[in-house]
Amino acid sequence: MAGTVTTHRALLSLVAILATHVDVQRALQREVDAVCGQRQPVVADKYNMHYTTAVRELYFSLAPSGWFFRNACRARGNHH
């Protein structure tokens, strides 16, 4: 189970950030739809998802995992 909490938190914070950037959400969805169509994505698709890769890399360069939750806890008064 090592790494699952970190991954979980990183994905949740990314979703929270995307919730405030609907234009980015739409562009990501358009790219997934264009590359995958109606099928489920496969690992090889990542080589054709340039916008998705750029968003992921930018996110991890700007918001290390835990950043969102550390600040959210402080805002709520929970300093764990």
Short description:
This protein is an all-alpha fold. Helices cover 68% and strands 0% of the residues.
How do the strands and helices of this protein lay out in sequence?
Elements: H1 4-19, H2 22-36, H3 50-62, H4 67-76
Helix pairs in contact: 2-3
The termini sit apart by 21 Å
Question: In percent terms, what proportion of residues is strand?
Answer: under 5%
What is the count of DSSP helices, taking H or I runs of 4+ residues? 4
The number of distinct β-strands equals 0
Order of SSEs, N→C?
A: HHHH
Largest beta-sheet details: none
Radius of gyration of CA atoms, rounded to a whole number: 15 Å
The residue ranges in which pLDDT falls below 50 over 5 or more consecutive positions are none
Shape: globular
How many domain units? 1
Give the % helix: 55-70%
Oligomeric assembly = single chain
**Arithmetic mean pLDDT:** 81
Care to describe what's here?
The chain is 68% helix and 0% strand. Helix 2 (22-36) packs antiparallel against helix 3. It has one domain. The protein is built from 4 helices and no strands. The model has no long low-confidence stretch (mean pLDDT 81).
